[in-house]
Design goal:
Blueprint (H helix, E strand, L loop, with lengths): L20 H11 L1 H11 L2 H23 L10 H11 L7 H13 L15 H12 L22 H8 L5 H6 L11 H14 L5 H20 L7 H6 L3 H8 L10 H21 L6 H18 L15
């Protein structure tokens, strides 16, 4: 007798991706090598120690908390390593190793595991760690080192600080290359773009968020620049200065803390850029990328809810019906 074909029912999800969490995270680690290498070139080998300490304490904190919670230890999935690298790259050169360790512990314990671990956190863990360090060590977090190849016209001040407080506009070339003051992995636009474009090409990063952020910074920064080009910087300066590119390609695109809908990604990116421009131009601080992304992280559930596409064939019932 011929065997009948039977349908097998199983629980969701029914659509599977070629990407596992482990594979994604280690690809992200690979893409972060250019910014890390540029940081070592411009600020010295000590920066490797800072990033290594950040990675170690991020990983060990996750392992200890998993052990306490009697959960499977998943350090090999690379998520803690990514958090550790990102935190290290957004710290000032030659930063305290003790403070780095505290930041990494805070990133994982409060920014990630407090919410239930990977996939449940609502804020980017690396930015949570940096926000903690900004509050705990404000002077150290705003103390910058001169790059190794600096010249007399390039000081240790970041381009944003130089413009905010002294109205000195840094040329684009050193910002593109990385020969400027700034965080370890934020100064070289070329290095960040190399890693970010790689992630877009392989399909890990959705292009909508970085493109919407770039379009938003051009739009909102451009409005003020057109109004008064002497008082306000041009949009290209906003793009290449500070942590904008690293935030656009690595922080804002975090799968867990960013919208899942296409429309939501555009809203998310534009709103981040609007907040960045407002903080940079009107705020007391020269930089606003960290705060802009964390603020919009909080709105992601609402954005997802408001931008969910209608089900095919769904009809909206009228009030009279």
């Amino acid at each position: 007798m011929e065997k009948l074909n039977r349908l097998e029912l199983s629980s969701s999800p029914h659509i599977h991706s070629k990407w596992s969490t482990k594979k994604v995270m280690w690809f992200v680690v690979l893409s972060l090598l250019p910014p890390l290498i540029s940081g070592v070139i411009f600020f010295g080998v000590y920066q490797l120690l800072i990033v290594s300490v950040s990675i170690f304490f991020a990983a060990i904190t996750e392992a200890i908390i998993k052990k306490i919670r009697k959960k499977k230890i998943t350090i090999d999935d690379g998520s803690a390593v990514v958090t550790g690298i990102l935190l290290g790259l957004i710290l000032p050169p030659n930063f305290s190793l003790t403070a780095t360790a505290l930041g990494a512990i805070f990133s994982i314990a409060i920014g990630k595991e407090l919410f239930g671990g990977l996939g449940f956190n609502i804020f980017n863990p690396a930015l949570i760690g940096r926000a903690f360090l900004q509050a705990a060590f404000p002077v150290a977090m705003t103390t910058w080192s001169k790059p190794n190849f600096s010249v007399d016209t390039i000081s240790s001040a970041t381009p944003l600080a130089a413009y905010k407080f002294d109205r000195i506009l840094t040329k684009l070339e050193p910002m593109i290359i990385g020969n400027i003051g700034g965080s370890i992995g934020e100064t070289s636009a070329i290095a960040i773009l190399a890693g970010g474009i790689f992630l877009i090409i392989v399909g890990i990063v959705n292009w909508r968020i970085p493109i919407s952020m770039i379009a938003g910074i051009i739009l909102f920064g451009g409005i003020f620049w057109i109004i008064d080009p002497i008082k306000y910087p041009n949009p290209l300066f906003h793009i290449f200065a500070g942590g904008f590119l690293l935030g656009a390609f690595y922080m804002a695109t975090d799968w867990v803390t960013s919208p899942v809908t296409s429309k939501g990604m555009w809203i998310f990116g534009f709103c981040i850029s609007l907040i960045i421009v407002i903080i940079r131009i009107f705020g007391g601080l020269p930089e606003g990328v960290m705060y802009a992304i964390l603020i919009m992280n909080a709105f992601v559930p609402l954005i997802n809810r408001l931008t969910v596409p209608r089900i095919f064939g769904e009809q909206i019932r009228s009030l009279q019906g």
